[in-house]
Write a structure and sequence with these properties.
This protein is mostly helical. It has 13 helices and no strands. It is globular and about 65 Å long.
Length: 331
Amino acid sequence: MSRQQFLVKRHKLLIMYMSLILLILFLSSLFIGRISTPLNSLFDSSNALLIIRDIRLPRIIAAIFIGIGLAGSGAVYQALFRNPLVSPDILGVTSGCTLGAALAMIFSADSFFLIQISSFSLGLISVFIALYISKIIAPNQIVTLILSGIIISAIFSSLLLCIKYAADPYDELPAIIFWIMGGLYRVGWTESILISSSVLLGGLIIFKLRFRLNVLSLGETQATSLGINFALNKILFVLLTSVIISLIVSSCGQIGWIALVVPHLSRSLVGPDHKKMIPVAMLAGAIMMLIFDDLARSLTTAELPISIFTSLIGAPIFAVMLIKNRSSGWS
């Protein structure tokens, strides 16, 4: 068996094992929670069936697709910007979503739908502003786009601080802070179907076009010489991932580290080839997100913000990977 055949077989086995782990986690997560729902209770308790069907199942499905969306978007951004330290919030999409949610909580705190709409809209607006500023200054420079995103993030973060200062400290401010910390506690079937269908569509497009990321990661000059329209593909991937991230953040708040850590982890497993790395990243993101959500809703009697676990676990993993790969650069 040649080395190439060995690597192909290894990649297929990795995908198969990760899919099996995800399936086991999916089934076991149905019975994990503050309320005990043993398997035999499904046959003699309608309450247990309702809890699993109407509360846990939509949340589990949403967690899987959120992990897929975050990890896939993170891998796209790191390839597009040729920087392993980049995550999707570099263009201000997370800051925009957070500001939009905070505004909606101030003016219509009881309407989760309006919070979602406001958050999603401002998330996309932030990206369009960053793209517009970059186009005016230097449309073909990646670094200009990054700096534009940093500017937008700083402005929106400052506006968020103003809203926090003006918010009611007994009602509105705690709601804003808890929402920012992230969680799937508000996800029902409506949100789950919206997230899963959108991420599925966007993820399929990323999966189909993943070979282009290998070319785009070489830079504009090399991509153009190979017949790839760098500017068009850059905008396509940025808008596609921005829609995914905006939808996720508008429904669940900020969920950090998944989009940054999982592409690194996947790259260390299968290498920098995006044709192999993107599927592994998506599966790894789904597995990690499902584990973190299980922890958030089962460790204590009260729901814990999911970003506590993504940060406490994701940051040390990232540190270990940086130390391990400190001499290998991009790969």
